């Protein structure tokens, strides 16, 4: 087939349309269990507990430890951007998608478990950040294969619902894991050897808990979902030759289906804004609205519940209206809620005859932000899964990871810039709120790039032979 002249008449079915597996609730549950388990690494290790431990004074000072961790994660991000598409491509062409999902998941679990040996002393800082950085790399590689598997376990009629269910399970799994960690290790409700704070044993045991949690909940998908069928005439390419094939495929996609490239760009931009909502949400709650740590944790729990509900509702709508409509609606909702928080701030006001405090503003409209984050993320994944040619989902989701990493500096940069610009112009303590404007600019930019992109049913990707 000529890769740059493929027509609708000769276009082979996508992996989703080819129906490699019959619809099965058991397979969907097994697949979503991976998302549930992965929250132990995302929420516990890299967001709320272990990285906070690594950047404490025990490792030589918060500033130095934070800088070292940031540098390690930056290197990890660069490695993911360079390697993700090719690792996805090679798992596709070799018919080893499930195998590499298992290998990469096991690597994350082992690296997480090894964090137990990171004692609270400066000489262990390098070990700790290296384990977390490598864990991030293998986690992203596993995520490429996991996302690609979506087309194997769903149908054109339920892919939105399946994607939303998986994303919702991830949010809920994070809540359960965090609550267990808090009750057993961080603020134990009863005395046991794991509650000992000597040499930070309780925090180091969190790593063991997270490793086991992820590993156990990752097992069902490895047993329930068959391996990707190996192409009959798959070319055996060397690792460097895989980059040549990647370039040819990207070129073919751009020539025959530029809207796919536009979607990858748009989703990379707005996904960076979505990530910033959670990254900076707690910071704004504490700094601008005066939330205590306990209140921030409560808000995080409620926010994750709302995000899970939103992802599942969004998945239901995705199958009926299409992913583009859900993404656009979600981004508009995020912009409206963000504008209200930005305008009202922490001041008191009267609405419907009632006095409202600033904390109420954040609780109400902050939860609205959470409600719309899930559907946008879930439908973005479902959009791409609808496009992938048979046996090429891994490579396409590898590009999805790469483009996301390439622009991951946007929201943090604009968040910081808006605060810096506002600082000399507003009252002390008010500048941080204007960081919201930076996040909204990123979300708006992603929305504007997305608007002219065609929905999946009108986009076709040409197939490029392996050799």
Task: Please summarize what this structure is.
Helix content is 72%, strand content 1%. It is built from 17 helices and two strands. Strands 1-2 form a two-stranded antiparallel sheet.
CATH architectural group of the largest domain:
Up-down Bundle
Range of strand content:
under 5%
Number of domains: 2
Distance between the termini: 12 Å
Overall geometric form: globular
The percent range for helix content is over 70%
Task: Report strand order across the widest sheet.
Answer: 1-2
- What does the largest sheet look like? 2 strands, antiparallel
Uncertain segments = 1-10
Task: Please explain how this structure is put together.
It contains 17 helices and two strands. The two termini are 12 Å apart. It folds into two domains: 19-231, MFS general substrate transporter like domains (Growth Hormone, Chain: A, Up-down Bundle), CATH 1.20.1250; 257-390 and 409-458, MFS general substrate transporter like domains (Growth Hormone, Chain: A, Up-down Bundle). The protein has a two-stranded antiparallel sheet. Mean pLDDT is 83; it is low at 1-10. It has 467 residues and is mostly helical. It is globular.
